Amino acid sequence: MNHEHKWWHRSVVYQIYPRSFYDADGDGIGDLAGIIRKLDYLALLGVGVLWLCPVYASPNDDNGYDIADYYRIMDEFGTMDDMDRLIAEAGRRGMKIMMDVVANHTSDEHRWFCEARTSPDNPYHDYYIWTKQPNDLMSVFGGSAWQYEPRLDEYYLHLFSRKQPDLNWANPQVRREIVDVLTFWLEKGVGGFRFDVIDLIGKIPEQRIIANGPRLHDYVLELNEDGFGQYDDILTVGEAWGATPQTGVRWSDPESRQLSMIFQFGHLTLDQARVGGEKWDIIPYDLRELKTVLSRWQTELYGRGWNSLFWNNHDLPRAVSRFGDDGRYRVESAKMLATVLHGMAGTPYIYQGEEIGMTNVRFTDIADYRDIETLNMYRDRLAAGYRPQGLMAAIYAKSRDNARTPMQWDTSEHAGFSAGTPWIKVNPNYWDINALSAVEDKDSVFHYYRRLVALRKTADWLVYGSYELLLPDHGQLFAYCRRYEREEYLVFGNFSGLTLTIDPAELRLGARSVPLLNNYPDPTLGENGVIRPWETAIIKL
Question: Does residue 239 carry a catalytic annotation?
Answer without folding.
Answer: yes
